[in-house]
Fold:
Amino acid sequence: GGGGGGGRGGDRNGLEVDMLPRLQRATLRATFEYLAGVDLPTAAAVDGGDTSRPRRPAGVWEDPNPNPNPKPAGVWEDEYLAAATDLRALIPARARSVWMLSDWAYALSPVGRLERARIREARRLPELALRAAVPGSPLDHLRRGPAHSRRRRGWSGSIFCRFWGSFRLRSRDPLLDEATTLLFAGHDTQSATLSWALLRLAGDPAAQRELRASLTDDPAAMESLGTRDVAGAAKKTNAKKTNVQPAWWRTSAGAPVLEACLRETLRLHPVAPFVARKLTSDAVVASAGDDDVGALTLPAGCAVGVWLHAVHRDPTVWVDPDSFVPSRWLVADSATSEPRRSHVGATSE
Structure:
């Protein structure tokens, strides 16, 4: 959930600032813009918040009949975050109660009705994202893909889906479900990770200084950090003297220290501390000793659970595993001479 880390920071005067709500809004807007290809304020201004109107076809961005009283982006955010916050508590609560024994009983209960209401509210922003999605955006690719394209249904399937889709309370839109999942999971995990990162950096002034210095636009400072290629690119960019230039550190290749801080945060605080995998071949789990006595063979097809929180703090893999050391990701691997990278046995991403 997005509550990890607390995310309370302070300015130079000692004023406490609750960072989590700010991070939630920032990551929500970033996720929306990535999925739809257009920022939330623009989408809200054009769409007007009328969820009863049909979804515009991909490529048709300007609304011929715009709403004269559009809902502000901040209201969209408030409504979505309020619903998402309640759902984080409602969904796990059902799994720990007697309501999980019967879907019908749960649906008729006050908690079940509240959950359905919150789900409807949480789906309004993904609906806006689908209506606003521009050609080439991830949601547009999904809409045109084999799983959701109308061309795959044929004319009879399209007529049926159009007819059945009018009964919105009784039907489910798979594309809307997918957009809801991507938006919910995307912004929630990002805000949680950034909260933990801020908390870790708040307790490590040296790491703060190194990170801040690495994000400077001064080529000389970049060279002092060993990022000569990036520094050269920055010099060429500055020489162009254009009005607006994207920050060179917006890509991970141009911001190794920032990426190292995020990787180290994910190592210590994985978003998904537990993952399940289905083995495609036999796997041998070695015994604690040096011999093979007591080794266990897990057969192919077996489902296994990996507790990433323990893997990420394994002292046989990591030096000083419980400490926040971003520089460990900047050290080249002795075998490949490349910076260390993560995988399922290292960090969850």
